[in-house]
Amino acid sequence: MTMPALKIAHMEPEVPVMQGGMGVGISLHKLASAVSNAGGIGIISGTGISPDELREEIRKARANTQGKGYIGVNCLYAMTDFADTMKAAMEEGVDFIISGAGISRDMYQWGKAYDTPVISIVSSGKLAKMSQRLGAAAVVVEGHEAGGHLGTERSVKDILPEVVDAVTIPVIAAGGIMTGKDIQDMLDLGASGVQMGTRFVATEECDADDAFKQRYLEATGTSMMMSVVGLPGRAIENSFTSQIADGGKVKIDRCVSCLKKCSHQYCIYDALLKSKDGDVDQGLVFSGAGVDQVKDIIPVREVISRLKHEFEEGLVTA
Length: 318
What we know:
By secondary structure, the chain is an alpha/beta fold. Helices cover 38% and strands 15% of the residues. An eight-stranded parallel sheet has the order 1-9-8-6-5-4-3-2. Strands 7-11-10 form a three-stranded antiparallel sheet, with no helix packed on it. It is built from twelve helices and eleven strands. The chain has helices at 29-37, 51-65, 82-91, 105-114, 125-134, 156-166, 180-188, 198-201, 210-218, 239-244, 268-276, 300-317, and strands at residues 17-19, 41-45, 70-76, 96-100, 118-122, 138-142, 148-149, 171-174, 193-196, 223-226, 232-235.
């Protein structure tokens, strides 16, 4: 049996897999377009790049996909340039906007004005219901297994049924999903599809430095840290996470005021930029649970092929 179809607004990808929008600079045009070309839904992260740089990334992705497939943009609500990032993406005609780390009522109005579907990242049935009422085309349910900023301590498996019961729009499961069997488990709980970030980092097309990808292969697990935005986050342990543990501060050389709210314990933009460029010891390496299952760096198309095979095998042996 093949994977079931997923439909969100006008989008009907070949496989019900959405690639996570990972900033800073981890998922840009190369990764997003590769996922789209392989039959999934690609996402460019608008975090940590200027609106003009985002426009260029979108245009490159469109060129790589020859105008086919689906490309969206992730806009982090916590960023000060949130509105400018969203509008730049919509003006470039992206297939959808996805947003987390808070909900903006305005973004749904902007989506209607530009005829662009808006997808919310939520962590409860209550937030999912609110998102649908405001106009969300779908919701991504992110559990504590996800990498990066987290809005809950609950597992996606616990939250998912609650959200599925609360809304009538498509529900996408996210957090710790690594295999075709994981996808099957999420669909069995009522999800319409899944979002995967960590597995797509260790791919040839991922926009991060090779050292960043290699760190995923070497990781034996993840740990929790506190982000300067006031939310917990999941990352791979290194010298940087040790420095900031228990409130430890890291000197900020230059503040670019990228966040609406920041504790100034350290500069998260600088920490993410360092890791993206290859300094995986002194930078922040966000990752989801299950990173220890990543054993090789392969093309995106091979990841999708494996997911299909694992999904089919899981159904046969279930």
